[in-house]
Protein: Phosphatidate cytidylyltransferase
Amino acid sequence: QELDLDERFGELDLRNDSDVPDVPPSTDSTPEILKRALSGLSARWKNWWIRGILTLAMILMFFLIIYLGSFMLMLLVLSIQVKCFHEIITIGYRVYHSYDLPWFRSLSWYFLLCVNYFFYGETVADYFATFVQRREQLQFLIRYHRFISFALYLAGFCMFVLSLVKKHYRLQFYMFAWTHVTLLITVTQSHLVIQNLFEGMIWFLVPISSVICNDITAYIFGFFFGRTPLIKLSPKKTWEGFIGGFFSTVVFGFIFSYFLAQHQYFVCPVEYNSETNRFVTECEPSELFQMKTYSVPPLLQAVLGWESVNMYPFQMHSIALATFASLIGPFGGFFASGFKRAFKIKDFADTIPGHGGIMDRFDCQYLMATFVHVYITSFIRGPNPSKLLKQLLILQPEQQLDVYKTLKSHLVEKGILQPSLRG
Structure:
């Protein structure tokens, strides 16, 4: 007699990896023109050329989006987030055969909308305060934003409870947890990416480019020189590729930062100009992006023959970012490899020929985004007078006057203003 779903999945936590149901293999999405052009090559070199051509195409497209500005980069991040969510959640549907669960596909996407509404609403309230202040309909949404977000989530939570069906309970709760973990991985991390972007495009480009550089150079070094396996989760990863990728990424990050630090477009915080309704990147560059002279340690002076060197302070930070991208970032990829092995799949999807899904290309980026955000808040970001001024301008006139009196009294006590000064 055929077991019902509850019995089938009731013992899921006791099963080993070999008992996990198979997921249909990915289809080959390589364009026919490439297949014909590379038909005479071995499988190894064919994959090399497919990956190389598609990598170059993606890099060129990325440069085009950078040229189009900050807003297009934000749309790119949002698009990648949605696609990654779709790829991970689809694996859950396939593995647990949950296509027939009542409401569940709709609820998964509903929760995605709720979480995005919360995070991006917080961003609007934080960075676009002046713009919001001028529009009464937005003032209500921002004032009660967290309550509205909570109410929307509660509606989804109640719909989930109402959708519970006998003999599907455990499977439904598996998928409920799967959806929330996927939201944690994709939405929160993409939100941090955009937060980093607002600090200045350089905080977005250097980390992302470092991960891309490490991925490419580690693959190249591993392809040509790889002999020693690095980790069982990824049999193709080698120590030669890992070490070669590390040194290449540090050098790349240092040089790439030097060129970016020379341009306001990349170093200035991204701000919204409510007068022109555009994002602007104009400012007086901070000390991080002003050339300074550093003394070379005596030990290195004998090797390099230099007593001092001129560089931007940010280049020192780029070494920390590149080091993380090379040594810790790959563990995001190892984590993804373990996930795929657990569910017997080669790639998250077949969106990009030779590369797999979008999530296969951005598994390390999400870990990097969190590190950069923590790094900025811990070592870089200080009090922001510009943001504080925007918040003060939102206050009612009597509240602004109270702030003025309190600040004046404080400055007088510290001797910065004379007691006789009249406002």
